[in-house]
Design goal:
Layout lengths: L1 E4 L10 E4 L9 E11 L1 H8 L7 H8 L12 E9 L11 E5 L9 E5 L4 E3 L6 H5 L2 H14 L7 E5 L6 H10 L3 E6 L4 H6 L4 E4 L12 E6 L6 H6 L1 E9 L4 H13 L3 E2 L8 H12 L7 E6 L3 H9 L6 E5 L12
Parallel strand pairs: 8-9, 8-11, 9-10, 11-12, 12-13, 14-15
Antiparallel strand pairs: 1-2, 3-4, 3-6, 3-15, 4-5, 5-7
The structure holds NADP nicotinamide-adenine-dinucleotide phosphate (NAP).
């Protein structure tokens, strides 16, 4: 099968399309033909070895100390079940599914996943490209807002980086949880985040949200551009600052806030589960949330997809189309 391969860290040029062995499903696994996948900020970080300074060693331990452990990246996919192990009861051949690949490997024509892993049936009305564009951002937004921040109806929530891969979902999920949502974005994305349900939009090119005099119960910064000292000025007395991207400085501040009390900063990493992905699939099916697609690239041009992600200005997700089924009607690769 074809796969996007890299065996050293570096710029997007380290990626090449190679013929590699098709994975075989174990007894409890399904083999999925991948129709669509995406390049996420995690793919870019693992390919370029771009980890926050203080977490660099931990990042390299995960990714491979001297060279990449996982030659084929790709964490989310949508496609069709084509084979299964003998113990699989939850899925059958022909099922349309989407999910996380677990140990990477989705930048390929086939991927294997455990039947109990974060994989679920794709809602019929949702395209393969939209389904592939969902797990990473939607799951991060759901776990950060529902579980870590425990957002309640009526709370004021601010999302910084509201047009990015996590941000577009954060706006919609905060609304779904009943919050009053403010979204921070740049001029060109004001219309997009308004269409996602933001009650108020702050254009960071014109205003700093922490200088508006307003306060929020939760500030979820997906862009990694706010310092805690700034966010504190815009938090209610028991407010919470949740940065998705953090450095050593934030780790020390979190420790200090934990010991001394006051306005809180919480540093977390999202996990994934079949149950949460099913919640997300149900919300997609009900039309409560939707994917935002920045661009489509065929697998052969995956290096260009990485370059787009590296810009840090994509709108939603960068989709990689592996099979023609993934393309929206009327769109050429
Ligand atoms: N902790 C975790 O578990 C976890 C999970 C997932 C992701 N992450 C991290 O979360 C981060 C966000 O991921 P992503 O996929 O959403 O990234 P992304 O798609 O690259 O989004 C970046 C966003 O930042 C905005 N931005 C850029 N410069 C800005 C500025 N100066 N001020 C305000 N906003 C600015 C961009 O908006 P404009 O285009 O409008 O400028 C864009 O919306 C990444 O660092 C990723 O590694 C962490």
């Amino acid at each position: 099968m074809k796969a996007a391969w890299h065996d050293r860290y570096g710029p997007a040029d380290v990626l090449e399309i190679r013929e590699v062995a098709r994975p075989e499903p174990k007894d409890d696994e399904i083999l999925v033909q991948v129709f669509a996948t995406t390049v996420t900020t995690a793919d870019w970080r693992f390919r370029a070895s771009n980890f926050p300074k203080v977490l660099w060693l931990a990042g390299r331990a995960m990714a491979g100390l001297f060279r990449p452990k996982n030659n084929v990246l790709g964490s989310e996919f949508a496609g069709r079940v084509v084979a299964k192990g003998k113990d699989v009861t939850k899925f059958k051949g022909g099922d349309e599914v989407f999910g996380f690949s677990g140990a990477w490997g989705a930048h390929a024509e086939y991927v294997v996943v455990s039947q109990d892993g974060p994989v679920v049936r794709k809602p019929a009305a949702v395209g393969y490209d939209e389904a592939a564009a969902t797990p990473f951002g939607a799951n991060t937004a759901l776990t950060f807002l529902r579980d870590f921040a425990q957002v309640r109806p009526g709370q004021k929530v601010l999302i910084a980086g509201a047009s990015g891969g996590v941000g577009v979902w954060a706006v919609q999920i905060a609304k779904h949880l009943g919050a009053e949502v403010s979204a921070v974005t740049s001029t060109g994305n004001v219309e997009l985040v308004t269409s996602l349900g933001a009650d108020r939009v702050i254009d960071y090119k014109r205003d700093n949200y922490w200088e508006t005099g307003e306060t929020w119960d939760v500030i979820f910064d997906t862009a990694g551009t706010t310092r805690f000292a700034e966010a504190k000025r815009a938090l209610t007395p028991k407010g919470l600052f949740l940065p998705a991207e953090f450095q050593g400085r934030e780790m020390l501040q979190a420790l200090r806030a934990l010991i001394l009390g006051g306005k809180r900063i919480m540093l977390r990493v999202s996990g994934d589960s079949q149950e949460d992905l099913q919640t997300i699939a149900d919300l997609l099916d009900e039309g409560e949330i939707r994917a935002v697609i920045d661009s489509h690239y065929p697998l052969e041009r995956i290096a260009d997809a990485h370059r787009r992600v590296e810009s840090r200005h994509k709108r939603g997700s960068v989709v990689v189309t592996v099979a023609p089924q993934a393309l929206p009607v009327g769109k050429a690769a």
